[in-house]
Amino acid sequence: MPISLLKRVPILINLNYLLIAYFMFASFTRYLTDPTNVKLFFIAVNVTNGAFLISQILVRLRRYLAASTLSTLGILCDSLWIGVLLPSAGSADLYRLAVYVIASCVVNSMLAIRKRQIIIYGFLGYAVLLLSTLLVYAPRSGGFNGEIRTVFITMTMLYIPTMVVLLFTNKLASDVIQIAETEVDKNRHKAEALNQLIKNAKNSLQIGKTLLECADDSKTRGDAINTAIGFIKDAARDMSGESSCADTANKEVVTFADEMQTAVHDQNAFLEENSTAVTEIMTTIQNIAHLADQKRTVMDGLLGKLQEQEHGIHLVIESFERIRASSGEVLSVVSGIFDVSEKTNMLAMNASIEAAHAGSSGKGFAVIAGEIRKLSQETQTNTEAIGRALSRNDDIVTQATVIVHQYTDKTAGIIKDVQDTFNAMEEIISGLGEISLGTKELTAATGNMITIAHDTGERVVDVARKVKAGSESVARINEFACQLDKMIGELSVDFKVIEGALGQVKRIGEQNIEKIMTLEQEMDRISAS
Questions:
Q1: In a domain, 214, yes or no
Q2: Which of 432, 475, 178 has its CA nearest to residue 293?
Q3: pLDDT tens digits for range 16-55
Q4: Residue 95 maps to a domain
Q5: What would you report as the CA-atom Rg of the chain, rounded to the nearest whole angstrom?
Q6: Does any domain span residue 498?
Q7: Could you give the 3-state DSSP secondary structure of residue 496?
């Protein structure tokens, strides 16, 4: 509903009730003073009051222009009834009529919805005043002259400015209403914009709350990340320390492998010398057998003495058997060294795997280093056993040499009687053949030992090479751990900067929420007012 109707409809309703009450009361009061002459006026006024009741019905039907027009006609008719139906006593009644007409014009200006209603009513009201004067008051007063004319002219001069003032007042009211409607439209647009602003503010409030929740969640996750960074930093430092220890252990293993390689090389040289000596012994035995075969005739006389020396020959055989046993021990020890080499090779492979998967722990290097130490001790034990076995071989060979010398000395004394010991010499030749066969077996075993020793040396070299490669990998891991520790330190500093920024965002979000809530409360207060 427009503002003009919004303000005039309540006035129309209230004035209808007021006019009904006023005209009923006024007509009834006048009727009591002169029932005979005022009866027709009383009836006409009460009939006219029906127009006000109908006007109220039209208002309820939202027919505001028709209701206003009907109320205007009711006022005009009541003014006409005052002029033509009431008895007149002179110029005073004309004054009264003019005042009623002017008052009805004022009331009509309050009831009128449109400007032309005021103009039309102004002409109709003046027509009522003119006709009542000419047709009623002038004839009853002896014509349009004297006081009647003066009153009419005076009231006309009053009526015209009154109508002009009412028109200007209506125009002013219309302008004010138009301005008010314009301002209402502006205020409506402002209110819509303000409502949109409030919606945006509420959205911003929700965004601010979400931002705060995100900031809190980011802080929680930041704390977890910071803790994880600290844990990674500690793990990197531990890995760096363990890598350093593993590097030191690998260097020790490399040193031990070099020493073991030297020992194996020395052992190979000794075995080669031993093999040469055995070969020379076998050659000597073959020469002796050949010489004995050549001197068979001479040795026929030595048969008896050679029988006495049979026991010495058995001692020689036992000595060489001991040599074979000692060689077997050497072979067992070398086999132990071979096993140790295989274990060392496997551990080196494990060390390489651990180096590839070192990751954050790197604890496998400590285990490998411990196992390498154990293998080192076992290797030292086996090496000592090799030394002892070789020492025993040396003693046995020395003892065999003494026995052979004794045998040679006895043989030199017996050569003169070789003819008597011919049959014994045959047995000696047979025994020398067996000794030659045993010596060949010993030589073959020694050759196998040399081959195994060479293989062991090559494996030791391979182990040393792999351990060196593992040491280089450990060194790279150590360098990476140092770089990782440095990068984690820089990341920790950057993360602290991010935490500071998140804290500032949270403070700004809280301030924005407070301001938006204050603005919302202020807007609610304005809306309520």
A1: no
A2: 432
A3: 788 888 888 888 888 888 888 888 989 998 898 888 899 8
A4: yes
A5: 71
A6: no
A7: helix
